[in-house]
Amino acid sequence: MTLSRRVLTSTFLVWLTAWVLFFGSRRAFSALAFGFVVLASYEFFTLLRTAKMPSYRLFGVVMGAILMLVVAFEQGATHSGEVFFIVIGCLFLFILQFSHKNNSEALTGISLTMFGILYVSWFLSFTIKIRYLDGGAMWVAYLLAVTKAGDIGAYIFGSLFGRHSLIPHVSPKKSVEGFFGGLFLSFAASLLFKPYLPLLWSWAHLSILGVLIGIVGQIGDLSESLLKRFCQVKDSGSVLPGMGGMLDALDSILFTAPIFYYHLTVFS
């Protein structure tokens, strides 16, 4: 039942994202990414609360949402609005802390809140930046396909052939076999996109990029596993049947999106 729910949920997310990407406007995609970030940010700060770690949950969710709006308003341009907003957010966190008489965990609360804003909202905002580039819809599709192919490959190869634990103290279920299976599918997905990409990148370029995205995507997955292990929870939430939370669905993309964006700015 869990596997069937996972497949149905994944199919719906793929269909929704693909429809918005290729039939919706750039603003529609920004709105979709905005919704994903609000859910994922709420889950992140709820994880911290579950672990009894200090943070400003409402402030973090609202600031993360506004940051996405700032990036969308700038239409993906490399302006300083988002950086200025991050600085203002940090400033207001200190002002909020001034009202607390107990400052024993002030630095922890401020740091964790800022980390949540950057890790979830700012990192995912790079998908909006990519969408506003020339041929942005296909670039986002490529990024998502290659990253998620790694997730699927790691899951399938790990389930069928997994014998050797990858990093058991971080994620006991992830295996070396799953890791390399994920890299293989990321590599294959990257090559399969060659005829459809806006730029004529070579086979060698796409091979290296596919492996790079595959590695970074799995590091993103392991990073969220580390967070969940610290907070002693299995899933970040329950909003996605069979998959867990929105943060569980986005974890591998959080690092690949900014890296791929800067790759595009260099090689386009």
What is the fold's blueprint, element by element?
Elements: H1 2-23, H2 26-50, H3 57-73, H4 81-98, H5 106-131, H6 136-161, E1 165-167, E2 171-175, H7 176-192, H8 203-231, H9 246-250, H10 253-267
Antiparallel strand pairs: 1-2
Descriptive notes:
The protein is mainly α and 268 residues long. It has one domain. The protein is built from 10 helices and 2 strands; from the N terminus they run ααααααββαααα. Strands 1-2 form a two-stranded antiparallel sheet. A hairpin with a 3-residue loop joins strand 1 and strand 2 (171-175). Helix 4 runs antiparallel to helix 5 (106-131). The radius of gyration is 19 Å and the shape is globular. The N and C termini lie far apart (45 Å). The mean pLDDT is 92.
Task: Pick out its properties.
2 strands; two-stranded antiparallel ribbon; 10 helices; single chain; about 270 residues; mainly alpha
Distance between the termini: 45 Å
Tell me roughly what share of residues is in helical segments: over 70%
Count of extended strands:
2
Query: What is the averaged pLDDT score?
Result: 92
Structural class: mainly alpha
Low-confidence region ranges: none
Secondary-structure element pattern, one letter each = HHHHHHEEHHHH
Number of helices: 10
Neighbour order of strands in the largest sheet: 1-2
Please give the radius of gyration in angstroms: 19 Å
